[in-house]
Fold this protein.
Amino acid sequence: MMKLPTQIVFRDLARSEAIESAIREKVDRLDTYCENIMACRVTAAVISRHKHQGKLYNVRVDLTVPGSEIVVNRDNAEDIYVAIRDAFDHARRKLEDFVRRQRGDVKSHEQEAHGRIARLFADAGYGFIEDADGAEYYFHRYNVVHPDFDALAIGDEVVFLAEAGGEGAQANRVHVRK
């Protein structure tokens, strides 16, 4: 629940219960993505453009959340309801990003392993990498990122992603260590 009531401002646009209702519905949905929204101000406006027939609409959404402000501005929609939808979709995405940062959710990347090319079977298009612990990982020519498989040599230091395969440990995204 928001701490302050939602403010809706109309600029160069007649106040409409239908538009206001659509905006309030979208604002209410934002509470499901972040329960700490302190304030929300929405501005719906008509943009005057030369050489354009018909009206273009702009919707701006200002959200105040603890320690930050999220601002979304969507221009050039020919339909006010499309402008509202687009602005609130973008606001929702930005709000979700804010919540993820607040929670400390960070994308985790797979840890790369290091090793040396132990055996190569160039004619068959595969080889084996040995890591520092002596474990071996199978790789195919299609798992080599850089340089090409044909440029690899026994003893080359490589970086790869270790994965469990159907017949044992496999190396994926193999590339020569820089």
